[in-house]
Specification:
Blueprint (H helix, E strand, L loop, with lengths): L1 E11 L2 E8 L13 H9 L2 E8 L9 E6 L1 H30 L3 H30 L8 E5 L5 E2 L6 E2 L9
Antiparallel strand pairs: 1-2, 1-4, 2-3, 4-5, 6-7
C-alpha cells in the first residue's frame, strides 16, 4: 500500500477531496546535486495536488489524513497510462511497414501514418478505460486513517512540523 499524508479540503457523500504535496522522490538523495531529475524538481517546485478519495472513516474538512492506494493498482494504472499507447503505436507502425512490403518510401509513409493512428487508438482506449474505472472503488484512493502526527502548516512549502523543538525531552 502506498500511503501519503493529505488534508481534507471538501467532502461529499462517501468521498473527500484531499490535497497532497507533489514532491520529488529524490529530494534527499546524496546524488541530487548532479541529478537532472532533482534539478527539474527544484525548478518546478512543489505543488499541491487535489485528489478524490473514498471517505469511509467520515473525515471532516480541515483534518489531516493518510490516503492510500494499493501497489498493484498503481502498477496497473501506470502500465495503462504509459505502455498501452506506446505499444499500440509500435504495433500499428510495424503493421504499416509490413503492409508496404519492400517499397522503402512507401514503408516510411505507411509506418508513420499507421504509427500515429495506433498512438491515437491507444489514447482513445486510455480515455475509455479511465471512464470505466472512474467510479470503480478498487481503483480509487482511500482515506485509511486520520493522521496521528503533529499539526502541519500549509502556508509555504508543505508539511512543516509546527511543534518542532517544542517537545520535552523527558
Amino acid at each position: 500500500m502506498i500511503e501519503e499524508r493529505a488534508r481534507v479540503m471538501a467532502t461529499e457523500e462517501g468521498i473527500a477531496w484531499v490535497e497532497t504535496w507533489r514532491k520529488g522522490a529524490c529530494g534527499s538523495c546524496s546524488a541530487s546535486a548532479g541529478c537532472g531529475t532533482a534539478t527539474l524538481a527544484k525548478v518546478l517546485g512543489q505543488k499541491r495536488a487535489r485528489v478524490r478519495a473514498l471517505n469511509g472513516i467520515g473525515a471532516k474538512v480541515g483534518e489531516d489524513v493518510v490516503v492510500g492506494i494499493p501497489d498493484r493498482t498503481l502498477m496497473k494504472g501506470s502500465f495503462a497510462v504509459y505502455a498501452v499507447p506506446v505499444l499500440t503505436m509500435l504495433a500499428a507502425a510495424w503493421f504499416g511497414a509490413a503492409l508496404a512490403g519492400d517499397e522503402a518510401s512507401l514503408k516510411e509513409i505507411l509506418s508513420t501514418l499507421f504509427g500515429l493512428s495506433g498512438l491515437a487508438a491507444g489514447f482513445l482506449w486510455l480515455r475509455r478505460f479511465a471512464g470505466r474505472i472512474g467510479s470503480d472503488a478498487a481503483w480509487q484512493p482511500v482515506i485509511l486513517r486520520r493522521a496521528g502526527f503533529a499539526p502541519v502548516s500549509w502556508a509555504t512549502n508543505g508539511f512543516e512540523n509546527k511543534s518542532a523543538g517544542t517537545e520535552s525531552g523527558g
